[in-house]
Specification:
Number of helices: 7
CATH topology: Rossmann fold
Shape: globular
CATH superfamily: Alpha/Beta hydrolase fold, catalytic domain
Largest sheet: 7 strands, mixed
CATH class: Alpha Beta
Low-confidence stretches: none
Length: 249
């Protein structure tokens, strides 16, 4: 790391009851965006792991040489830490964290349930070609995509810039992920902001249509992409905790 961890971006690991919850943050974000959910899970008696994914939560320069494989490896390691000491595990993720959540669900049929919050499962049309052209010019950073929040009194400490090459690895992984969604057979709670300026709500529709497990949906109409910090955050947190309790009962 070239910089210290940002205030509020620290990972979280709390020993609780016999069942565990893995909490995953989004692209260029950090655990601060998911801390409300993680702490509510702790309060509900779960053992909780919320890692700081490689390259995140410090300086954007730390992220430029990371990619999907790094983030997935960190998420898998955190899952294994939970699975090794918990009877059942639920995975919760926002945006890219939602993509990681879905991927882990496609690999581990033993997972008790998934909560995918504004999950990215398909890239915006034409965006990869634009990013590839920018990368070919040698540009490493573009304007950021974080902090999409309707509530003016709430902020996200995401990076102010987006690293181009890591974003391209996320797009490539999304293409592979779509072919794996039918392997997800556990219950899935899909949370969707109907006014999302980062991940189109149709991503949630694709996820709901292709997984083979039972699906529950929660639509948030007052919030933007980072719904976990927005007007509907209390409803999202409560629904996530209720879902985790139900699927681990």
């Amino acid at each position: 790391m070239t910089a210290p961890i940002m205030p509020g971006a620290d990972p979280l690991s709390v020993e609780g009851g016999p069942n565990g919850v893995l909490v995953l943050h989004g692209f260029t974000g950090n655990p601060g965006s998911m801390r409300g959910i993680a702490e509510a899970m702790v309060e509900a008696g779960f053992t909780v792991e919320m890692p700081l994914l490689p390259g995140h939560g410090t300086s954007v320069e730390d992220m430029v040489d990371t990619g999907w494989d790094d983030w997935l490896a960190a998420a898998e390691a955190a899952y294994q830490r939970l699975a090794g000491r918990c009877e059942k595990v639920v995975i919760v993720g926002l945006s890219m964290g939602g993509a990681l959540t879905a991927w882990l669900g496609s690999v581990h049929p033993e997972v008790a349930g998934l909560v995918c919050i504004n999950a990215l499962v398909e890239e915006p049309e034409g965006m990869r070609e634009i990013m590839e052209a920018i990368a070919a010019e040698g540009t490493e950073l573009i304007d950021g995509i974080g902090a999409d929040i309707a509530d003016p009194d709430s902020t996200e400490s995401a990076y102010p810039q987006t690293p181009v090459r890591p974003l391209l690895t996320l797009f490539k992984a999304g293409e592979e992920l779509r072919g794996r969604l039918d392997r997800i057979s556990c219950p899935v709670l899909i949370v969707t902001s109907v006014d999302d300026h980062v991940v189109a709500p149709t991503n949630s529709d694709t996820l709901a249509e292709q997984v083979t497990g039972p699906v529950e949906r929660l639509y948030c109409r007052r919030s933007y992409h980072v719904v976990t910090l927005d007007y509907d955050r209390a409803e999202v947190i409560a629904a996530s905790v209720d879902f985790a309790r139900k699927v681990t009962a």
